[in-house]
From TrEMBL:
Coiled coil start-end: none
Cellular component, GO annotation: membrane
Source species: Uria aalge
Keywords noted in UniProt: Membrane, Transmembrane, Transmembrane helix
Record has Kinase as a keyword: no
Bilayer topology term: Multi-pass membrane protein
Domain of life: Eukaryota
Transmembrane portions of the chain: 20-41, 61-84, 96-121, 166-191
Protein family (similarity comment): Belongs to the TMEM54 family.
Name the UniProt record assigns to this protein: KCP3 protein
Length: 206
């Protein structure tokens, strides 16, 4: 239908049920990936660096709380997108997809930005902001350097490397979730006849 009039990026192509279903499945996969990475980050990094007082660091808030919320919402948006692809005439599902995908797009964008800031903060402070839960007097100025004693309850070098190795893919997953959610939001607007893309879609149908 859309061939010769914008190809795969034309409104008609975006609103194809098969393409919408693939986008929903993609959101579900990405959402589960974010949840798995968030669990690994919490289990292998953040539960160690919170310190004896269990203080929540900025990295914890950026990498875990927002990432997990984004993953859960991505799964919900993916399920709604699949339902819409099978029930194109249900207005209630259109509005649900619009609201959930828009919220998830905003949250996933905030998550990717937060993870980028957490990575930048950790690299700029040479990991010291990340491992501040260790009160050892032998802690070096660079978390990548080996600590001289066993006063610190965790390996600072492993914590630093593991955190960055997990935050980078988590940031990419969040960015992909934002893109797919934005496309689902656009499809919902097209189905409801809102915006210029909806008018182009109506002309294609005619």
């Amino acid at each position: 239908m859309a061939g010769g009039r914008g190809g795969r990026w034309a409104p008609g192509a975006l609103a194809e049920p098969r393409r919408l279903m693939r986008g929903g499945l993609g959101l579900i996969v990405l959402g589960h990936g974010s949840l798995v990475l968030g669990a690994i980050v919490h289990g292998s990094v953040l539960r160690h660096v919170a310190g004896a007082s269990r203080a929540v660091t900025p990295e914890y808030a950026a990498a875990n709380v927002v990432s997990v919320g984004s993953g859960l919402l991505s799964i919900a948006a993916g399920i709604v997108a699949i339902l819409v692809s099978q029930n194109l005439s249900r207005a209630a599902l259109h509005w649900t997809l619009l609201s959930v995908s828009l919220l998830n797009c905003l949250l996933s964008t905030a998550c990717s930005v937060g993870l980028a800031l957490a990575i930048a903060l950790t690299v700029h402070s040479r990991g010291m902001h990340l491992v501040r839960g260790c009160d050892s007097s032998a802690l070096p100025d660079d978390a990548r350097a080996a600590i001289a004693t066993n006063d610190c309850p965790f390996n600072t070098t492993r914590i630093y490397d593991t955190a960055l190795a997990l935050w980078f893919p988590a940031m990419l997953l969040a960015a992909a979730e934002a893109v797919l959610s934005g496309r689902c939001c656009l499809v919902a607007l097209i189905f409801r006849g809102i915006g210029p893309c909806a008018r182009s879609y109506s002309k294609e149908q005619v």
